[in-house]
């Protein structure tokens, strides 16, 4: 096979030189290219950096050591988060390398929960803009504003939020740009998505957060949040503009409100390759944990019974993933699969008589009232006794809702009950893992929505798996980007979940966990991407045609296109021959689009 042929097979190759036409301060101001003190002497000659840097040439490892010492000196998690934001604006390779070397420690700082605090303080901490700000009062300018971020081939992944429901802290308006950026950081860390080929977007529709509306420093639109036809037109104009300007880009919707998240996903999923982490991501990682648990306790998909305690965006999203798994695994119709899932919310068990109280996502799960005539259905314990579920999942944010009585009622009819208290943060969990073990004599199979310390039972220690979306959505995105799939239907999602489930420590003799640790996520992302790519090809959805068919070649093909935090040699090219990336004019690190706009 010729070299040219191989290059064609790896369109996002990460080997060899990076081309740029930038020199001097322009190069140092472009985070994607900047190496700081690690520029070699030859590069300092070529790119006219002498006099702009101290003379000692250092390694990336030297820089990481210095940066970690600086990071560790910051007194609070928010101060550490702000320090990392500043580093990302200067040197992306160093930023990502530092996190990867200290992933477990830094993950809660650069993502949830600390990122939530940074978002709440966005306007007061603001120093310079990053990302694309679109607002509903300038809807006619959306195409023009999106055009600034590169040429059609320059963007692979767009994360967009309207800020209505951020990380459990509610409406944060324009501060949602930070959650779009944080998600893209996770994509790069966990799946090697090229950071310069991504675009974070906020759709500013106003805000119903009174504190923000009365804050004179608030940077977003100072108006109540728009809705109805005006809102739908805004979202649709954005989506259509993305498809026109960046036709290959995969769109990730993030932290939209309860009444819009599912509706928007349902509208666009049949038309474009898109994903909503709140609706689908939590469901994916939970479903993977269920698959692993079923392998342990022998439960069959055609007979499994599920109770969802909490039926908002996350709860119904999980239920949808379960329903898809039942349908694909058993051949049952969707309607038949729905009958294996009982959803509970504030009114109790969801019934058809609830009518106007039901959200569109809840409607398919409402049970016939006749089924529950003369049966108690307001309290969880009564529902558990009647349904006798194999799986109990909590997304209610009601602390302690899984009482000893509820848990022991499950354990009376299932040898190894599966109980997932997924509400977060930790103070809102439905039950403590230690209690679940104690109340079931160690028979429970558990995963949580927040990190918990190991559980001790009968002289043994058991690690508790966390249903962390970050082990799922990055690999799905990697598979979608590399295959250039036209759509992301449920079949591709289930294929991704199967890959994740296969990595469970409990199935591989590496422990009792139902899910892998986040430190293994890059290897997991390769497995997930392979399943997504193969499924896209099986369904003729892939627009990238030169994809290897043999497993080992496909593995290498994926890895070669995963960006890693290492310095690559730079090659100087003439501006006339330079791409948008080579000019520093694509992605959020563009010096021409962000570096000149100081607060």
TrEMBL record:
Reactions that this protein is recorded to catalyse: (S)-malate + NAD(+) = pyruvate + CO2 + NADH; oxaloacetate + H(+) = pyruvate + CO2
Gene Ontology CC, one term: cytosol
Active site, renumbered: 111, 183
Cofactor needs: Mn(2+); Mg(2+)
InterPro entries in UniProt: Aminoacid_DH-like_N_sf, Malic_enzyme_CS, Malic_N_dom, Malic_N_dom_sf, Malic_NAD-bd, Malic_OxRdtase, NAD(P)-bd_dom_sf
Basic residues: bias regions: 590-599
Entry binding sites for a divalent metal cation: 254-255, 278
Region feature (Disordered): 579-599
Keywords recorded for this protein, A-Z: Metal-binding, NAD, Oxidoreductase
Superkingdom of source: Eukaryota
Domain Malic enzyme N-terminal span(s) in chain numbering: 88-269
Keyword Ribonucleoprotein carried by entry: no
GO biological process entries: malate metabolic process
Domain Malic enzyme NAD-binding: 279-537
Molecular function GO terms recorded: malate dehydrogenase (decarboxylating) (NAD+) activity; metal ion binding; NAD binding
Keyword Chaperone: no
Positions of (S)-malate binding: 424, 468
Stated family: Belongs to the malic enzymes family.
UniProt protein name: Malic enzyme
């Amino acid at each position: 096979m010729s070299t040219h042929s191989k290059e064609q097979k790896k369109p996002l190759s990460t080997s060899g030189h990076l081309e740029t036409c930038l020199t001097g301060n322009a190069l140092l101001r472009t985070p994607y290219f900047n190496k700081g003190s690690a520029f070699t002497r030859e590069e300092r000659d070529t790119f006219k950096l002498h006099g702009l840097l101290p003379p000692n040439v250092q390694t990336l490892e030297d820089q990481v050591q210095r940066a970690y010492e600086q990071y560790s000196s910051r007194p609070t998690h928010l101060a550490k988060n702000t320090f990392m934001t500043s580093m990302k604006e200067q040197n992306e390779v160093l930023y990502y390398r530092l996190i990867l070397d200290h992933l477990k420690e830094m993950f809660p700082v650069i993502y949830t929960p600390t990122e939530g605090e940074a978002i709440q303080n966005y306007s007061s901490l603001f120093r310079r803009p990053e990302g694309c700000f679109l607002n509903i009062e300038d809807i006619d300018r959306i195409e023009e504003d999106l055009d600034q971020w590169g040429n059609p081939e320059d963007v692979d992944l767009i994360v967009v939020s309207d800020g209505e429901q951020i990380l459990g802290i509610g409406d944060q308006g324009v501060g949602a740009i930070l959650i779009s950026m944080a998600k893209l950081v996770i994509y790069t860390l966990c799946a090697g998505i090229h950071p310069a080929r991504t675009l974070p977007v906020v759709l500013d529709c106003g805000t119903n957060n009174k504190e923000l509306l009365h804050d004179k420093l608030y940077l977003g639109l100072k108006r109540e949040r728009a809705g109805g036809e005006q809102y739908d037109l805004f979202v649709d104009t954005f989506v259509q503009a993305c498809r026109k300007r960046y036709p290959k880009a995969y769109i990730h919707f993030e932290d939209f409100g309860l009444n819009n998240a599912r509706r928007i996903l349902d509208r666009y999923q049949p038309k474009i390759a898109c994903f909503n982490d709140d609706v689908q991501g939590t469901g994916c990682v939970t479903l993977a944990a269920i698959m692993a648990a079923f392998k342990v306790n022998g439960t069959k998909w055609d007979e499994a019974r599920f109770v969802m305690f909490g039926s908002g965006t996350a709860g119904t999203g999980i239920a949808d993933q379960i329903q898809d798994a039942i349908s694909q695994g058993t051949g049952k119709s969707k309607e038949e699969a729905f009958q294996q899932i009982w959803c509970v919310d504030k009114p109790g068990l969801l019934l058809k008589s609830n009518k106007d109280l039901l959200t569109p996502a809840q409607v398919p799960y409402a049970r016939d009232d006749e089924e529950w005539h003369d049966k108690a259905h307001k309290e969880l314990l009564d529902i558990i006794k009647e349904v006798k579920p194999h799986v109990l999942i909590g997304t209610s944010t009601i602390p302690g809702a899984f009482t000893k009585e509820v848990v022991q009622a499950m354990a009376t009819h299932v040898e190894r009950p599966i109980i997932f208290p997924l509400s977060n943060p930790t103070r809102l969990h439905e039950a403590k893992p230690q209690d679940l073990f104690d109340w079931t004599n160690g028979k429970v199979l558990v995963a949580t929505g927040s990190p918990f310390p190991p559980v001790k039972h009968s002289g043994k220690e058991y690690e508790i798996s966390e249903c962390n979306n970050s082990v799922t959505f990055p690999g799905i995105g990697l598979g979608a980007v590399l295959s250039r799939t036209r759509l992301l239907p449920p079949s591709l999602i289930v294929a991704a979940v199967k890959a994740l489930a296969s990595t469970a420590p409990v199935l591989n003799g590496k422990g009792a966990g139902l899910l892998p640790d986040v430190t293994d996520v890059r290897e997991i992302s390769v497995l997930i991407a392979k399943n997504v790519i193969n499924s896209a090809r099986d369904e003729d959805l892939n627009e990238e045609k030169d994809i290897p068919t043999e497993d080992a070649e496909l593995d290498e093909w994926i890895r070669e296109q995963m960006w890693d935090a290492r310095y690559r040699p730079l090659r100087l090219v003439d501006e006339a021959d330079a791409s948008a990336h080579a000019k520093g004019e694509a992605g959020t690190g563009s010096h021409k689009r962000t570096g000149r706009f100081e607060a």
